[in-house]
């Protein structure tokens, strides 16, 4: 099937333009493999969290944050020195090697409880790093206007992978045992590396098409060299920029709300069953429902919604869902309620608000897209996880019931919604400013010619 035929077919579901087809499809496939691998592992992570002791979850979240602090400067040093086509495969190969080590330890039952805790921390680090690197790559390749049109469809690739992963786990967790699913996850991550390399080869065509649409001469491919700069440069970038600080606060509130829901889920599921296989199947069933709902919304509505209403209102949809979800948990803290809440809020996140949040990064300088974004996605998010975990434990320690904790979180979600709208206005201002600069550069190039 040639690119013209693919373009006609894709144009029925996404507003893709000639020159964007190859990059769009490889991005879709890349995210598909990445999240399929993660979602094979995710139910195992949730089971490991229970195996390590529900009462220890806040310690595991704190350990995750400490590991993140150590990993971010290493990542900063790598991206400063290596070109994109080298450091992206390196990140994923490193995680595949880690999976192989865990498979050996779990297969031979070496320190099961301690390995379970380490695995919980590791997969939390892996998830954020792997996905952050992916979306940094997307923000580096696609302009703001392209992101509004295409990020929903690209995110649908991840949702399709998130659908496959739980389906594999639901079908094989009991007959094969969860540990052997690590091999499947490793193979999917290696497939993601292949897709990333093919996407790199499609990047010049995408860049040339973007330059041509602006009337500018083709620019050199930015992924051909390292970013330079300091290995801790992302931290002052976030501190100096009100826009980046606002995104960091948005992510912190997402973490707080998500952590509170996760801790409630862990408590409710642990009370519902003491069988590890049953609990793993419950977690996988939640993921499966989310995958089905998310991919439908992303394919049919996300791009149109973000293009029509903008990134701010789209990002505000998630805190809107959390407001009503926490009210529901306050009234009925039951298993079916937390499962439904998780399904709806994560669908809203993956289908609408997360693609919108990633669009916010497209108007940044290239170094900010990797270094500052990595600090926000990794340090800020996991730091907020750690603080939120201890806050939840403290609230429970005072004797507060789950329903009261849910009720107290509703005003926080309302403030989070307002912040999303402010960030949306700031993004539109930056996008217009970037567009004016691009138009001026194009005019200058034409005049010079």
Descriptive overview:
With 449 residues, the protein is mainly alpha-helical. It is 85% helix and 0% strand. It is built from 14 helices and no strands. The protein has helices spanning 3-10, 21-51, 57-81, 84-107, 112-141, 144-176, 181-214, 234-240, 242-272, 276-309, 311-331, 335-360, 366-397, 402-448. Helix 3 (57-81) packs antiparallel against helix 13. The protein is globular and about 55 Å long. Mean pLDDT is 81; it is low at 211-220 and 437-449.
Question: Averaging pLDDT over every residue, what do you get?
Answer: 81
Structural class: mainly alpha
Annotation, overall tally of beta strands: 0
In terms of per-residue confidence, which ranges show pLDDT below 50 for 5 or more consecutive residues?
A: 211-220, 437-449
